[in-house]
Structure formats: structure tokens, C-alpha cells
Amino acid sequence: MGLYSLSRWPELLSNLQQPVYFQQQGTLVLWHRQDQAEASRFTQLLQATQTRLPQIPPLQALDAPGIGQLEPSLAGRFSQGLYLPSEGQLDNHQLLDALWLTLQQLGITLHWDSPRQPGDFAPDQADWVLDCRGLGAQPQWPQVRGVRGEVAMLHAPNVKLSRPTRLIHPRYPIYIAPKENGIFKIGATEIESDDLSPVSVRSAMELLSAAYSVDPGFGEARILELVAQCRPTLPNNLPAVRRLGPRCLQVNGLYRHGYLIAPAMVDVMLQLMQGADSALAEQFEVSVSAP
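Above: the chain's sequence. Below: its structure in C-alpha cell form.
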């Protein structure tokens, strides 16, 4: 789904009414010496995935000079790393702004702060009802659970990282994602909880210290946001679709991969709206079932 979506994002973004930051320069994976065992396990998982899916570009092992060649500001700071070519990123804030503007210009009416359930719509009242409520669908889909995630947004003009950088961490994956104008997102914690309270001190310290350990330039960064939210997740951590009626579909469980696999799931839904089955759902092993 990720590879498919990477190929679809440029086309989808080209149809929006304002530009959205998108790049595809790969991902750099780093680790400190004390996390070598975890890095070896992660590398083995990637290699097993590439054996199963040979269309994925092969990872590249890096030594210290190789890391410095990709990211000059990190020269001499890490002795080993991995480069995952062709991986991409986009600015989700810009995407939401562009989608909102495009919907407005198409004359679409948006109803904010007006909760609805599929049963609120009488038969034939709507052409289609698409339930994408995430955790809001728990009363009808009790298998959906929340996985808490916390993210820091920083303004760090002294940091020159040019691509997403992932730091192997013993508790959860930590990434540093560069945006435009010196903005960086640092995330994301992964806690089995549906707690929606603000970011904890522990999580904030872990995220910020991890960023600082990668590039000391983050020491003078300014904190713009500390955000906590829960990801809607199913027991197998994979997305699924349910048919609630002849013209009513429910999609959920995108977990921490929402923006990554959104184009694939959109195309699955479009195929289901046009016919009884979806070849893409079968290809991606997305469950399509009745409640």
C-alpha cells in the first residue's frame, strides 16, 4: 500500500488548488552504539520484507562517510546507518489546508462540529455514506482501539537535515521530518492507551532529547507545538472496510500510517463504490466484510 500510495500522491496533489510540500528523497535510519542490537533486528525485518516484496528498492548500508555524503551536517556523528531510497514525505498541515480550499471551490458544503452516525441518514437521503470517524466509530465497531501518539513541532533554522531521519529507539520509532522554512516534526510516541490528555513530560523529554542527540542544532530550536492524539487501530494493526448497507461503507484502522496509505485506501473505496468487489483490496489484503 505504501509503494502504491507514493506513486499516487503526486497526481492527487496536482489536482489541489494550492501547493503542498512533497518530496521523495528517501529516509535515513540512524542509531547510537548502545542500540546496535535493536538496529540489527530492524535491519533483518526490512530485509525479510524486501525478500517478500522484491519491488521495494533495496536498502543501502551506510558507513560514516556515506552518512556525511547524504547529510553533511551529520558528518562524523554516526558510524553506521541505513538509507531507504524512494521513501517520501508531505506536509500534512498544508495538505489539509489545500483540501479545504479545493472543496470550497468545488462548492462542497462542510458541516463542522456536527457529529453524525451512519444510522442518522435515511435510505436514499445520500448518494453514499462513508464513515471515516476513527475512534468515533467505536460504539458500532468495538474492535477499534486508540494508540496514543505525541508529536513536537519545532522551528530549527540551524538544522540542515534534508530528508526524514529515523532514530532507532528502544521504546518506539522516532522520526525527524523536515518541512519548509526550517520547521521540523519530531515524533512519534506509541502508547497503548486512548488517553487524550496533553503531552507528558516524559514523552516530551524523550522526543526532544532524541532530536538533540541526532543534531545539536536542535538545542536552539523553538517549540511551536506539542500535540497528543490517538490513532484508530484494529487488533492486527491493519486497515479494514465494512459494508453497513447498499450505499454505506465504513473504513477504519489506519493506525500510524494514515497519510502514507491514504491514496491506496481511497482507491479501494472508489472501487467498492463502483462495484461489488475491489481488486486493490484483494491485492493489499484489506478486509472487506459485513459487521
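Residues 36-52 form the longest helix (17 residues).
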